[in-house]
């Protein structure tokens, strides 16, 4: 008599496969959260670097040999550029702190499986950038 062939080796159950897919989805969510944080970090570092550059360049121009002549003009733009650079550094630091708080809040929500996107923070950040652009445009027009 011929022995029946053994069936294929048992594989993972559907519950095990679902748990594995859920773990992979959680990992993707955490990695996306980290990428978002790193994008904020790069933006903040760029703002701070550019602010330092503006500040130092303005001070360099004001210390030049022709600085007295330039400072006599009331509309000389470099007089306030050092403060603009300092402001950019401060805004970059605030953005770093905000990004860290946002990252930690999102991390906790992912772990608790109750993520709630924050449209308020996105709106506030966008409005802040628009306001900075408007102030910069007015400053450029007046100088």
TrEMBL record:
Superkingdom of this protein's organism: Bacteria
DUF202 domain mapped to chain residues: 28-108
PANTHER family: DUF202 DOMAIN-CONTAINING PROTEIN, FGR18P
Subcellular location: Cell membrane
UniProt keyword annotation of Cell membrane present: yes
Protein name per UniProt: DUF202 domain-containing protein
Record key words, sorted: Cell membrane, Membrane, Transmembrane, Transmembrane helix
Pfam (any one): DUF202
TM annotation in the entry: 38-61, 81-101, 122-142
Leader peptide range in chain numbering: none
Membrane topology summary: Multi-pass membrane protein
């Amino acid at each position: 008599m011929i022995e029946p062939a053994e069936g294929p080796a048992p594989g993972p159950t559907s519950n095990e496969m679902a748990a594995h897919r859920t773990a992979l989805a959680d990992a993707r969510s955490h990695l996306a959260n980290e990428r978002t944080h790193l994008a904020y970090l790069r933006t903040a570092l760029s703002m701070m670097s550019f602010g330092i550059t503006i500040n130092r360049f303005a001070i360099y121009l004001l210390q030049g040999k022709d600085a007295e002549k330039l400072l006599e003009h009331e509309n000389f733009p470099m007089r306030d550029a050092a403060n603009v650079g300092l402001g950019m550094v401060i805004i970059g630091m605030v953005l770093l702190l905000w990004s860290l708080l946002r990252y930690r809040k999102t991390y906790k929500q992912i772990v608790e499986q109750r993520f709630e996107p924050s449209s308020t923070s996105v709106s506030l950040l966008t409005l802040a950038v628009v306001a900075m652009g408007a102030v910069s445009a007015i400053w450029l027009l007046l100088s």
